[in-house]
Design goal:
Length: 96
């Protein structure tokens, strides 16, 4: 095509500049995600360490029912996240 050489230089330069800007944005977002992941991990560690101390004897002499829902798997993992506790197996029915 006539004149395509004139357009391809500036067009390619603009696309390369856009690519560099997007790469910088992606890198910044990855850094933010890593920082937030670290904060979440620290908060989970704190919760795990402090929870027994906070609720110790809080339910003494009281009846309680605890419901726990699983955390859905992440996009990168099919393994359930959260504690390693597993739901209790249903107890066999007793004959009357």
């Amino acid at each position: 095509m006539l004149g395509s050489g004139l357009l391809s230089g500036p067009l390619m330069g603009g696309l390369q500049s856009d690519k560099q800007e997007l790469r910088a944005q992606i890198d910044t977002l990855h850094q933010q995600q890593n920082a937030l992941g670290e904060r979440l991990s620290n908060a989970n560690d704190f919760d795990a360490a402090m929870a027994p101390r906070i609720v110790r004897d809080a339910l003494q002499g009281k009846s309680a029912v605890v419901f726990r829902t699983p955390t859905p798997p992440t996009k990168t993992s099919t393994r359930w996240r959260g504690s390693s506790a597993r739901p209790a197996e249903p107890s066999p029915e007793r004959s009357r």
